């Protein structure tokens, strides 16, 4: 099973209309590709592996969080007084963002846009 064959299969699934992500996810999960992906995810999420890296990762995440919060505060302070356009309906705006970023309307699910 090569990356190329998986990519070909995923491209095929992406072209199915209408585009129902939940069904396509289940469909992919029931194939050999999906099964091996599930095994891989299980191994990667093993608690012993996670626990061994918890201390190191918690420090890294904490430092990145501090840096991000400092950046957000600087941006908020520099944008004082600016008027931002607020959309009328969050749901409609989210649908619009999803359609733009996925390149097609999604049916039956509200997933975040990938960008």
Short description:
The chain has helices spanning 3-14, 21-29, 32-44, 47-78, 90-102.
Number of helices: 5
Mean pLDDT: 81
- How would you spell out the order of helices and strands? HHHHH
Amount of helix? 55-70%
The overall strand count is 0
Terminal Cα span: 29 Å
Radius of gyration: 20 Å
The SS-based structural class is mainly alpha
Major beta sheet summary: none
Query: How big a fraction of the residues is strand?
Result: under 5%
Quaternary structure of the protein: single chain
Low-confidence segments, ≥5 residues, pLDDT <50? Answer: none
**Global outline:** flat
Tags for this entry?
Mononeg_mRNAcap; mainly alpha; single chain; 115 residues; Mononegavirales mRNA-capping domain-containing protein
Describe the structure.
There is one protein chain. The chain has about 120 residues and is mainly α. Among the domains are: about 1-45, no CATH class; about 45-80. It contains five helices and no strands. It starts with a helix and ends in a 13-residue tail after the last helix. The model has no long low-confidence stretch (mean pLDDT about 80).
